[in-house]
Amino acid sequence: QRRVHGESVLHLCTCLRQRLLPFRMPSPPTSVVVHPLVLLSCVDHYNRVARVTNKRVVGVLLGEWSKGKVDVTNSYAVPFEEDPKDANIWFLDHNFHENMYEMFKKVNAREQVIGWYSTGPKIKPADLEINELFRRYTPNPLLVIISVQPQQDQLGIPTEAYCSIEEASADGSLHKTFVHIPSEIGAYEAEEVGVEHLLRDIKDTSSSTLANRVSEKIASLKGLINKLSEMKEYLENVVSGRLPANPQIIYNMQDMFNLLPNLNVEELVRSFAIKTNDMMLVIYLCSMIRSVIALHNLINNKLHNRELERGPAKPAVKAAEAGEKKEGDKKEAEKKETAKKPNK
């Protein structure tokens, strides 16, 4: 009887676990994809509310979960105020958020509340409390900090994604903290077309293709230097004992160094030099041909404009020339007559 009773209890627990499985808290996502519409909405929100101030703006993120990946496809602004002197005093209008979400849900029911955004630029002490407020609407809310005023030396994407987890302290107590989640910028086909139309007004058409390539190369090299500096800082912290060694990070670094070519081989160095010189020669010739064609078109354009300017003045010139010719013929006739008179 005890065995039968134990099997029945086990069966009941299994059934309850299957019933409650859809309602469990999802694990933190592996990556977050922010779409262009979210970036445009956040920048517009900041320019309307806090452009000339030191305040930050807060809004709600809408999107979809799919196999550990989150697509942030839409967002809307939410009234938010905080005391600049006391970080623990803040106000977020959740009633406004609930009304807005009801209207958004009528338009697209697939978009769910997945978290909130802030213009930061960094995490603030009250963010954990705000994150707990959004836990009412989603089990595991995300925080995406969007940099609306990127610095000139800042490289990379202007978004940073975080998720809160419970972490055990030294005394055994649990406390919540934010962990970083990899983020990227992605777009659907329709969004890519819209972004291209917007970039037409921003892109500098006066600069040549060669100048754009050089600037892109410089930006890429700066980004590479920043990444190498981060790797160096991490390794120094591991050696000094300030950070624990992560085998996965060490393996990734080793793989990157193994993929680097051996520049000590003379034949490889010579091959790199020849390939680089050939590419630079083609780019130089293309730039020269483009400059010659542009100069040729400029000269032809000036000649064409000069002919157009002379066009309306041709009848007046012909009349003046005809009048001068008549006066010349008249003077010659008078000279002939005066020459004939003495002979008579």
Layout of SSEs?
Elements: H1 2-20, E1 31-34, H2 36-49, E2 58-66, E3 69-78, E4 80-82, E5 90-92, H3 94-107, E6 112-118, H4 127-134, E7 142-146, E8 159-168, E9 174-181, E10 183-185, H5 189-202, H6 209-240, H7 247-259, H8 266-310, H9 314-340
Parallel strand pairs: 1-3, 1-10, 6-7
Antiparallel strand pairs: 2-3, 2-6, 4-5, 7-8, 8-9
> How many helix segments?
9
Question: Unreliable runs, pLDDT <50, ≥5 residues?
Answer: 1-6, 16-25
Cα distance, first to last residue?
A: 167 Å
Strand order of the biggest β-sheet: 9-8-7-6-2-3-1-10
Written as H for each helix and E for each strand, in order along the chain, the element string is HEHEEEEHEHEEEEHHHHH
Query: Got a strand count?
Result: 10
Give the overall pLDDT as a whole number. Answer: 82
The description of the largest β-sheet is:
8 strands, mixed
Q: Give the overall shape.
A: elongated
CA radius of gyration: 37 Å
Query: Percent helix among the residues?
Result: 40-55%
Measured by DSSP, the beta-strand proportion falls in 15-25%
Look at the helices and sheets and give the structural class: alpha/beta
